[in-house]
Specification:
- By secondary structure, the chain is α/β, with parallel strands linked by helices.
- The chain has two domains: 113 residues, Response regulator (Rossmann fold), CATH 3.40.50.2300; 156 residues, Response regulator (Rossmann fold, 3-Layer(aba) Sandwich).
- The chain is built from twelve helices and twelve strands.
- The strands form three sheets. The protein has a seven-stranded mixed beta sheet with strand order 5-4-6-7-8-11-12, with helices on both faces. A three-stranded antiparallel beta sheet has the order 2-1-3, with helices on one face. The protein has a two-stranded antiparallel ribbon with strand order 9-10.
- Helix 2 links the parallel strand 4 and strand 5.
- The longest helix has 20 residues.
- It is globular.
Length: 297
């Protein structure tokens, strides 16, 4: 998730590729919450370290899915794992995942990585349960939200690995903010926030605080303040926006609880590891942002 501060006006949220904080970075771009690099390294590297050495991918057949598969496969191999194969499905609109799940099952891979999102991920997880894949193999959702887990239910989603930038039940700060979110009159379903909800709120708050500190909404002045001040709130502790515009903060490897492990509503995740910011995101040097190079001279 990214946001853009234009010289002529305020920040606008939009989805961005890594290139927006890399070779195509601008002076007014901030990338918040997660990117493919963080998801691939968070899940790929850490699940291999947890013992999931062999992988098979079920991938959405467009640029997002292909990029996520390629990034994660490279990380798995780098961490000492092995990729046994992959299958790609049309997206959106695929509802029958039986053939893709059966190919993943027959691969014998310990981990089946779902390089897709939304309804595709949900339908793939349902099919994996229906065909018994999860009895012998584990699923890794490479981009999944707590709302997806709620939709699936713990009996279906249990055991799934994922990487997230935020979990509502981490500490007192996350719980306090999340209860406010849940109780808001506009939240008709009384759902707990996803990492995107939390990331948007944090990004906007940081932006407004920067305006206040700068005494103006001029984009250059505001961006300077945003980069200078750490992000310390319910979402991030000592998060930093680099000269490349990437907000670096801790990420979390989680696993979905079994129904008997859940003690109260939305008690869905076991946090297996906190991934420090310098491991969760690429370094400034890796980003190859021309502006960052200029700033370091």
């Amino acid at each position: 998730m990214s946001c853009l501060c234009r010289p002529s006006g305020p920040m606008r949220p939009f989805l961005a590729k890594k290139s927006f904080t890399g070779e195509k970075c601008t002076a007014y771009n901030v990338h918040y919450t997660y990117n493919n690099w963080a998801l691939a390294h968070g899940t790929g590297r850490e699940v291999v370290n947890q013992g999931g050495k062999t992988w098979f991918f079920v991938t959405a057949d467009y640029i997002f899915g292909k990029s996520l598969e390629e990034d994660t496969a490279a990380v798995v191999k780098e961490a000492g794992g092995k990729v046994l194969g992959a299958v790609r499905h049309p997206s959106p609109g695929t509802t029958d995942f039986s053939s893709y799940v059966l190919q993943a099952q027959s691969s014998g891979a310990q981990i089946v990585g779902l390089a897709n999102a939304g309804a595709d991920t949900i339908n793939a997880i349902k099919a994996a349960n229906e065909y018994g894949l999860t009895k012998e193999q584990k699923l890794a959702g490479l981009l999944i939200f707590i709302s997806d887990i709620h939709s699936l239910g713990l009996p279906t989603a249990k055991g799934l690995y994922a990487t997230t930038a935020f979990y509502w039940d981490m500490d007192d700060d996350t719980r306090k903010w999340s209860r406010r979110f849940q109780s808001h009159p506009d939240n008709k379903k009384k759902a707990m926030p996803t990492m995107v909800h939390a990331g948007v709120y944090s990004a906007l708050t940081h932006y407004f605080q920067a305006i206040q500190a700068a005494g103006t909404d001029d984009a250059d002045a505001v961006m300077a303040k945003m980069r200078a001040a750490p992000v310390n709130d319910f979402f991030a502790k000592n998060g930093r926006i680099g000269p490349d515009g990437l907000h670096r903060h801790d990420m979390y490897l989680v696993q979905v609880k079994a129904p008997e492990e859940s003690k109260y509503p939305w008690d869905y995740y076991k946090v297996l590891k906190t991934i420090p910011a310098d491991q969760a995101f690429p370094s400034v040097e890796q980003q190859k942002c021309p502006l960052a190079k200029s700033a370091q001279r």
